[in-house]
């Protein structure tokens, strides 16, 4: 069993190198994840600050002109790789969908939900994810806009729970 996993969080699959978790763990707010869509080949892009919106739901914002947005609308099966501080190392696989609500103050962005079907636990007993992917802010207005989008996503997640 990987470090930090509890029996309640872990669902064992004897043939799987990375057993599935039953629920999404909590990760730091400033986590950078990697969204993988298909067309039919895989395409991977970094996404900022995905929001845990329940045991098996994730919300994130995508720029409305992103190719990944068009791909997930066409083929909703996606994967989200999260490597976050506190030893969060997982791949959440499921179906993505675009939320019908507009993101206030963010006309160039849409909210995307992922209904997570499988949570692959990629923690290892010999290594720990200490801080996850790090970025340096070069444009404070972009950081402020991101914080606003995440605040909205968190409020929507709380309303649904």
Describe this structure in words.
The chain has two helices and nine strands; from the N terminus they run ββββββαβββα. It is an alpha+beta fold. It has one domain: Roll (Pnp Oxidase, Chain A), CATH 2.30.110. Strands 1, 2, 3, 4, 5, 6, 7, 8 and 9 form a nine-stranded antiparallel beta sheet that branches. The longest helix has 21 residues. The two termini are 30 Å apart. The relative contact order is 0.22.
- Please give the CATH class: Mainly Beta
Named at the architecture level, the CATH assignment is Roll
Question: Helix amount, in percent?
Answer: 10-25%
- What string gives the helices and strands in order? EEEEEEHEEEH
CATH topology: Pnp Oxidase, Chain A
Q: Give average pLDDT, whole number.
A: 89
The global form is globular
Structural class: alpha+beta
Instruction: List low-confidence stretches.
Output: 1-15
Summarize the structure.
The chain is α+β, with helices and mostly antiparallel strands.
What attributes characterize this protein structure?
161 residues; alpha+beta; Pnp Oxidase, Chain A; nine-stranded antiparallel beta sheet; 9 strands; 18% helix; 37% strand; disordered N terminus
């Amino acid at each position: 069993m990987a470090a930090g996993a509890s029996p309640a969080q872990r669902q064992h699959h004897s043939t799987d190198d990375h057993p599935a978790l039953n629920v999404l763990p909590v990760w730091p707010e400033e986590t950078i994840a990697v969204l993988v869509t298909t067309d039919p080949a895989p395409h991977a892009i970094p996404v900022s600050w995905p929001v845990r919106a329940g045991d098996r739901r994730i919300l994130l914002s995508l720029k409305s002109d992103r190719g990944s947005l068009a791909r997930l609308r066409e083929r909703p099966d996606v994967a989200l790789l999260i490597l976050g501080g506190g030893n969060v190392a997982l791949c959440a696989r499921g179906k993505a969908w675009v939320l019908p609500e507009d993101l206030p103050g963010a006309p160039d962005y849409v909210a995307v939900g992922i209904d997570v079907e499988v949570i692959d636990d990629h923690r290892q007993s010999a290594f720990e994810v200490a801080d996850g992917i790090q970025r340096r802010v070069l444009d404070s207005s972009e950081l402020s806009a991101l914080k606003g989008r995440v605040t909205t996503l968190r409020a929507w997640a709380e309303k649904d729970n």
